[in-house]
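User: Hi! I'm working on a homework problem where we have to compare a predicted structure to a textbook description. Could you give me the structure for the chain below?
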Amino acid sequence: MSDYTKSVMWRIRLRVEASGISLHVFGKRMGYEVSAKQSAWQFLNSTEDPRLSMLERAAAALGMSVEELVRAPSQTEIARTFSRLYSDAADGVMQKGHSRDQAMLSIGRGAKEVLRDQPDDVVKAWDRWRIDTGHGIYGMKFANKEEFAAALRSVAGRLLVDGLPSSK
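Assistant: Happy to help. Predicted structure tokens:
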């Protein structure tokens, strides 16, 4: 698989995640009646070189053109995805009992994937923001996991309201 093809599939996965729809719904919208979730997962994770018809189905399922589907993600899409990373980390703390280290590590891994295709100045701005925010949260004292999860959710909410860090 070429780097460009990997990049296109990554962009499609990012758009599906940013849309907030489930794999089942995405699969149904792509036209899969039986095992829609599995078919959508296979398309997103196993396709090496998508046919144009598959790109058209994926774009239609997300309500966008093929051009929009494969273009580089916008700063707003990155902010939404980062917000979801923080929300998911909070859920992991509350539902699965993840430690503070596990939560921050999952955010860092997700951030690396989200920023893979971005220009260097954007990556540096987001990394600086994530480290400042993450270290701020990491260094705070919390009475319990609920307070820690609430702090993560607060960051997620601020991302949606405030948007992007400056790339300057």
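For your comparison, note the following. Residues 83 and 157 are 7 Å apart (CA to CA). The chain has a mean pLDDT of 83. Good luck with the assignment!
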